Each structure stands twice: as C-alpha cells, then as structure tokens.
Amino acid sequence: MSEFSHLNAEGNPAMIDVGAKTISRRTARARSVVTLGPEIMQHLIGTDISTKKGPVFQTAIIAGTMAAKRTDDLIPLCHSLGLDNCQITITTEGDDAIVSCLVSTEGKTGVEMEALVGASVAALTIYDMCKAFSHDIVIKETKLMEKTGGKRDFHRE
To answer: Which EC number(s) does the record attach to this protein (predicted)?
Structure first.
C-alpha cells in the first residue's frame, strides 16, 4: 500500500518537493456530468442554453478555464503551474451536460488537479446559471479520465 504523499515524517501536511524531478510533458483530462433534466434541457437551442445571465455553456467554459489556472490558490498543497493549454468542452447526452477539461504543461508535476478543478467549476457554473429554471440539478460525478507523464500513465473508459 502506498503512503500518503502530502504528509511529512511527523505526519503534518507538506507540499511535495519536486525539485529533483525532470521536466516532462504532463497532460490530464477530467470529466464532470451534470444532470439538468427535461425542464432545463427544453431551453437548449443549438449547442447552448440562454439565460438572463448569458450563455450557460460558454460562461462555464470561461469559469472552468479560470479555475484550472488558479488551482494552487484553491487546493492548499498544489504546486503553482503555468499551464500550456486548457481546453474545456461541453456536450449534451439526453438530460446530461458532459464537461470535459483537458490540461497540459511542461513541468515537474502533474496537472490532474487542474483538470479536476476546471471540470468541477465548469459544472458548478452550469448549476448556478440554470438554478432559476430548476433546483433539481445533480452534479453526478467528477473524475479523472486520463493522465500522461510522470511515474505512470492512467486511462479510464
């Protein structure tokens, strides 16, 4: 069994020292699924939902991108990373909005948290912008779908 990585020898929270690691290409993709329901999905016109606050999915993409870039401000032991890329897409399947956040950088540590934060904040923005239609919205899951670079790659279907 692996040890928790963010604890020092005394068991206190600690940032990981990545100073000795080599720089490599790091990517991660996370996904959030937001169930909006038919009451909200009836407002879908083309590829977006229009509200008094503006276009839902376009606003969520901007919010998720901003959040991914500020992950180290939100998650206490994350390293500050300059992201090379952050791409958020939102598609619909039935009553669900599927948020995908792909992040990449050249660095000494991975970007999993940036991808997860980006997808999460985009999902929360969808909730915020649609709650005037209904509060019966469920953010069902947020999960890492894949990562490359570092000690081991990861991929989930």
So the answer is: 4.6.1.17
